[in-house]
TrEMBL record:
NCBIfam families: CDF. Pfam families: Cation_efflux, ZT_dimer. Belongs to the cation diffusion facilitator (CDF) transporter (TC 2.A.4) family. It comes from Methyloligella solikamskensis. This is Cation diffusion facilitator family transporter. It is found in: Membrane. The lineage of its organism: Bacteria, Pseudomonadati, Pseudomonadota, Alphaproteobacteria, Hyphomicrobiales.
């Protein structure tokens, strides 16, 4: 089993454990903020399951119906995560509004806070693991899952603060007010997750620093060619697709031009993780610039 799959399965187990702890905290206190925190954790379970399915799907090799692989499944998963985050935030806002209309006095807050605190620490550790290894493995699904868990950690911290302040001051209305503020922050983070994923679904180009590095590699390994132009890239999960036109002298043999292409492809694959390179060789009359130096 791949490390990505192991992490995805671990997320499912952690999300179920955290959900149980947070609902127990709500049962102990009757706090709407803790209830909302537990409600948000239900989304964690759905997110973890979705991420696991996306990681498994994206790991499948290309087939006759998906010539470029299945990496975009992770972007679809990340978009779904963003939608679930937004729905959770709206649910929290609803519960906060109802509680604001009729505030309740909290019971057994110390026990409830302790249980919720354990769940928060557990979530914080796990979201750090997911974000770190998700980025290392270029797994958008795992990274999105980690970012979603980070919203849960922020939610829990806000909820804990609200419950403590409400209990110490006797202002029960603070419980739903702080829960509502945290829900608004969750909406913002959900939008950020969706925005990044939509960029991948729209075949967004590689980041500019990566583009600059690609240009540099092509230029430094294209000796014998006249120029390179029409460079295009797109990123899909762990893969970066690179294609461009390489102009060579009309008298150059197919074998010689192929050797240049091999040299460029090897250099790109060694430097750009998951690079998939396609080079279209053209005769010198197709050159867009002149001067003997490869230009991208």
């Amino acid at each position: 089993m791949s490390p990505a799959n192991q992490l995805a399965i671990g997320s499912i187990a952690v999300s179920f454990l955290v959900l149980g702890l947070k609902y127990w905290a709500y049962e102990l206190t009757g706090s709407v903020a803790l209830y909302s925190d537990a409600l948000e954790s239900i989304v964690n379970v759905a997110t973890a399951v979705t991420s696991y399915m996306a990681v498994r799907m994206s790991a499948k090799p290309p087939d006759e119906n998906h010539h470029y692989g299945h990496e975009k499944a992770e972007y679809l998963s990340a978009v779904l995560v963003g939608v679930l985050i937004a729905l959770a935030a709206l649910s929290i806002l609803r519960e906060a509004y109802l509680e604001f209309q009729d505030p309740r006095i909290l019971v057994a807050p110390a026990k409830g806070l302790a249980v919720n605190g354990v769940a928060t620490v557990l979530n914080g550790i796990w979201c750090y693991v997911l974000i770190r290894f998700g980025r290392a493995m270029s797994s958008h699904a795992l990274e999105a899952d980690g970012k979603h868990l980070m919203t849960d950690v922020i939610t829990s911290v806000g909820v804990l603060a609200g419950v403590i302040v409400a209990y110490l001051t006797g202002w029960a209305v603070l419980d739903p007010v702080i829960a509502a503020l945290v829900a608004l922050n969750i909406l913002w983070m959900g939008w950020r997750v969706m925005r990044d994923s939509i960029g991948g679904l729209m075949d967004e180009a590689a980041p500019e620093p990566v583009m600059d590095r690609i240009r540099e590699i092509i230029s430094s390994n294209a000796e014998g060619a006249i120029e390179a132009h029409d460079l295009r890239t797109r990123v899909a999960g762990r893969q970066t697709f690179i294609d461009f036109h390489l102009v060579v002298p009309g008298s150059m043999s197919v074998e010689a031009s192929h050797d240049i292409c091999d040299r460029i492809e090897d250099a790109l694959r060694a430097d750009v993780e998951g690079a998939k390179v396609a080079i279209h060789v053209e005769p010198e009359e197709k050159a867009k610039h002149h001067g003997g130096v490869p230009i991208v």
